[in-house]
Design brief:
The protein is mostly helical and 171 residues long. It has 6 helices and no strands.
Length: 171
């Protein structure tokens, strides 16, 4: 059984980094003179990928790699937390040019499942490498397979739904 408390810890750490990253860069861009010096000129969303299968592949590969990295860093939960926080921080930096409602709309539909996937993989790695509570087989079945399933669904939503919704509403 997945330890819900630990899953929520990973989820919170990433989310904290996301919010701090967003607020820091957003404040600089829009409140601290970024508009004046020409770094950004509006809140418009300009996707660099078009929705579709190719984007789905890119997202799924990137997310799976990150999930595996979090799993393999399970020997030390502090390192896992640091990596999750930094990944959230960078994600916040990337969405900072968007208006707050567009940023939430761009992250929420797929982000919850994606973060749960990362979190479940992190707990699995910690239980296998750090605590040595479960066998490798049990760790793969209990944690990595559910993590991958969550990431596949999240990548589908991100690739085919989120990008279209945000482009329509915030574009």
């Amino acid at each position: 059984m997945v330890r819900l408390g630990l899953v929520l810890d990973y989820f919170f750490i990433f989310s904290l980094g996301l919010v701090i990253g967003y607020l820091t860069i957003h404040a600089f861009l829009f409140l601290g003179g970024g508009l004046v010096i020409g770094l950004v000129n509006d809140y418009r969303f300009r996707p660099i990928f078009r929705p579709g299968l190719r984007f789905f592949e890119v997202v799924l590969i990137k997310n799976s790699q990150f999930s595996m990295a979090i799993y393999l860093l399970g020997f030390n939960r502090v390192v896992q937390y640091l990596v999750m926080f930094i990944a959230g921080l960078v994600s916040g930096f990337l969405i900072a040019p968007l208006a707050p409602w567009c940023a939430v709309l761009g992250v929420a539909p797929h982000g919850v499942l994606e973060l749960l996937g990362y979190s479940v993989a992190g707990v699995g790695g910690y239980e296998y490498f750090g605590l040595r509570k479960v066998s490798l087989r049990a760790s793969l079945i209990r944690y990595l397979l559910p993590s991958l399933a969550l990431l596949v669904v999240a990548a589908f939503i991100e690739s085919f739904v989120t990008i279209k919704v945000v482009s329509t509403i915030c574009g």
